[in-house]
Please model this.
Amino acid sequence: MSIHLDQRTISPKTGSLGTRFLIYPQVPHLAGYEKPETIWISTPPNEIQAGPADQRMYVVDPLFEKPVYEYPYQPPFVGERFPPTEAGPDGHFDHLDPGSRQFVCAHVFASLRRVLDIWESYLGHDIVWHFAQTYERLEIIPQVNWNNAQSGYGYMEFGTERGNSEDVFPYALNFDVIAHEFGHAIIFAEMGTPNGMASREYFGYHESVSDLIALISLLHFDSVLDRLLQSTQGNLLTMNELNRIAELAGDKQIRTASNDRKMSTVSDAVHDLSKPFTGAMFDTLVELYHRNAVDRGFVDLPLDVSHDRLFELDHHEIELIGDRFAEAFDARSFLLKSTLEDARDLLGSAIARSWATLDPNTLTYAVAGAAIADQFDAMGAPEAGDILMENLEWREIVVRA
Model:
C-alpha cells in the first residue's frame, strides 16, 4: 500500500518519498501540455534498476523491430536491446531529455507505476498480477511498429498513433492510453477471469472501467485539476456539453465519459456498449462534486436547484449554477479543488473495493453498479449510492420501483 501526499508518494516500508520522474499528463502535442511534469512513484531510488525496472515491472527496449506479442510468441523478450535507461547521479530519472529514446522508456514505466500506486492506495493492498504463476514481473515494451497498444498475459506493449500528417506520436507518451491498458490488467488481477464464455456486458464493463481508471488517474495531476476547474469556473455541469469537452480538457477519456447514451441506444460493439455504464459513473462523479460544493457552503445555490437531477435542469437553472459557481471559484478555488478530489477518491475507492465482490462469470452492469453502491454505503456515504442508482436507472441499466 502507498500513501499519497501532494504530488509525492511515501513508501510505508522505507519512509522514502520515492523516485522522481517526468510525465506528460496529456499528450505533448496538446496545447498546454508541451512540458512534462515532475511526479514521484513509491519505489525508492535504491530499489530501481536501469531499464527502468523494479520488483513489479521492467522495461525492455528491443534494438530491432519486434513483432507484437501473439500466442505462442510470449515474454520474456530475449533479443538484442538498446542499453537500459539509467538514473541520474541522485538516483532519480527526471534528468532525461524529453526528446530521447531513454525518456520514452522512463515515461511509460513511471506512468504505469503511478497508476499502480493510485489504485493500490484505493484498494489498501498490493495488487497481485493475474499472471503471477507464470511471470514475477510485468514486461513493458515501449515501442513497437504498430498503430495500437495492448495489455496481455505478463506484458504491455505500445505502438504509435499516426496523425493526419507524417507526425508519429508514441502511445508510450500518452498517459490516457497507458492507464487504460493497465486498467485491464488491474481488473484481471483483482476480479479474476471468466471460466468460459463471458457475457457481452462483461467485456463492456472491462472497457468502461478501464476508461474510468484512466480518468480517475488523470485527475491525480494538479495541473489537470487546475486546468479543468479554471476552464469551467468550477462548474463541471459544463462537462455535459459534448462540443466543449476537447476545449476544456483535451482528453479522449473525458469525452467518452461525458455522454448521454442509454442501453436502448447502443450497439453490441464493445466500446459503444461501454458508454452507458461509463456515463453513469461520470455523472455520479460530477454530481458528488456538485452536491458537496453546495452542501459544504462553498457555493450558494437554492436547495431545489442543487439537488435536481443533472439531466433535468432547465436553461435558467444551468445559467444560475454557472454564475454561482463562477463566483465561488473566484473566492474559493482551492476548496472547490479539494471537493473534486474528495469526489474522485470516493468514486475510485468504491470502484476498487467492489472488485472483490464481483464474479466475472455472472457479471452484469446492474450487478456491478449495485456493488459500487454497496461500497458507498460501507464507506459511510449512502447518499452517493443513491445518486449512482438513480444514474444507473436513467441509463436503463437498473429498473427500480
Summary: DSSP finds twelve helices and ten strands in the chain.
